[in-house]
Amino acid sequence: MMKTTRIISMILFFLLFINSVKAQINEDNWEYPIKPGQPEWKNLKSKQEMTNNCQIPTNYLTKMTTDRLIKLCLDYPLLPDIFFYDNLKEGFETKISSFNGFKELLLRKDLSAVLIKKYIDMQPHLIWSTDLNESNNTFKFIFIELLLIQPSFIAQLSEMQKKDILSDVLKKYAYKKEIPEAYSIFNLKISLFIMQCR
């Protein structure tokens, strides 16, 4: 009897585990329903309609992995709007306040670990590589570095992590300066701002 109960418990645990994995896969597969360039996007009459359309449903938002959430934030259709503000920091903070993906991302307890790894893996000198990883482009550098200066991100860092990031920012800054045709003054300014924030 005891053995039967144990087997049933193991089967139930296994089924729960499988369902949990399936749910995670489904949540990490969410995509924006409408994107710029699609006919449906042109039917959105205002910036507010566009903003509303891009919100991530709560049942997906709170359960997807932090890595996937960063990817969705990178792909946020209205993110390029940050270039229309007086400065990038102001534009980025406006998008944080209007998009639930950014708000959730900055609440994640594992944001520092995931974001540091992503940033360290980015290679500014490979910008023209034919093997270019999606994270190795100038726009994504701007976005990731804007995240690095958010107070909620900085608050998660240990002193050692701060030193590691600063060291990596300095290296990437040196590479960027060598490729002015790829990295604009915006890229360089954000790198300098990170150095000041530390």
Descriptive notes:
- This protein is 64% helix and 0% strand.
- It starts with a helix and ends with a helix.
- It is globular and about 45 Å long.
- The model is unreliable at 11-25 and 130-136 (pLDDT under 50).
- The longest helix is centred in the first third of the chain and has 27 residues, at 2-28.
- The protein has one domain (2-197).
- With 198 residues, it is mainly α.
- Helix 9 runs parallel beside helix 12 and helix 11 runs antiparallel to helix 12 (185-197).
- The protein is built from twelve helices and no strands.
- The protein has helices at residues 2-28, 39-42, 47-53, 58-61, 66-74, 88-98, 100-105, 111-121, 138-148, 151-154, 159-177, 185-197.
How many domains is the backbone divided into? Answer: 1
Shape: globular
Radius of gyration: 20 Å
The biggest beta sheet is recorded as: none
Q: Please, how many helices?
A: 12
